[in-house]
Design a protein that fits this description.
Elements (H helix, E strand, L loop, with lengths): L1 H6 L1 H14 L1 H22 L16 E4 L4 H7 L2 H10 L4 E4 L1 H10 L9 H13 L15 E5 L4 H8 L2 H13 L5 E5 H12 L1
Antiparallel strand pairs: 1-2, 3-4
Helix pairs in contact: 3-5, 7-9, 8-9
Length: 199
């Protein structure tokens, strides 16, 4: 099989591409079904609740690498391969709700690409204007707070802004002109709201 592939590599790649284009929807659906089934198995293996606060809403739980290697793994492995790896080496992983995961990242300095001093100042001003607590559950732990776009356009906003500072300036201008586009949510409530908007 390997020898055949090496001898007909170009043709095999072409046929694979054609097959994928013709069956894109079905392939995506099958992959999603496999992913959800495997994720459910992993969650059950790891206890189906946050290891710290016992949050049991499984749709929002994160599979956390206990020793902070999750970021590197996500960059290297696809989602299905990583779930299989978790099943094989489950002692290295735990379930955390988004809030507890963000608190862990701050406590253990796992934040990738830390913000500049100017960004920190802009964010502080935004948080103050948005009330300094989660709008839905009143969570007052700053490391858990997320700026939420009420129409679900946060990712698009950040991409269009290109830099973190430009994004914060855009949010700040919107708040000061009372456009009412943004609110402050803790990571748990933000994830629940994101899933709701996807439905």
């Amino acid at each position: 099989m390997k020898d055949y592939y090496l001898q007909h590599q170009t043709r095999v790649k072409h046929l694979s591409k054609v097959y994928y284009e013709r069956n894109r929807t079905r392939i995506s659906q099958v992959r999603k079904e496999i992913y959800l089934k495997l994720r459910k198995e992993v969650l059950e293996m790891l206890g189906n609740k946050c290891a710290h606060c016992q949050e049991a809403e499984t749709s929002i739980l994160h599979i956390d690498h206990k020793y902070g290697d999750g970021y590197s793994e996500r960059r290297i492995f696809g989602s299905l391969f990583r779930l299989r790896k978790v099943k094989e080496q489950s002692s290295l992983y735990q379930l955390l709700c988004p809030n507890c995961n963000w608190k862990k990242r701050h406590a253990k300095n796992e934040i990738k690409n830390p913000p500049s001093k100017n960004c920190i100042q802009l964010r502080e001003e935004i948080l103050g204007l948005l009330g300094n607590h989660c709008e839905k559950c009143s969570n007052s732990q700053k490391e858990c707070w997320h700026i939420h776009h009420l129409e679900g356009r946060g990712t698009q906003d950040r991409k269009q802004s290109r830099t973190q500072e430009a994004y914060y300036l855009k949010v700040l201008t919107s708040i000061k002109t009372q456009e009412k586009k943004y609110s402050l949510l803790c990571a748990n409530c933000h994830e629940k709201e994101r899933l709701r908007l996807q439905c």
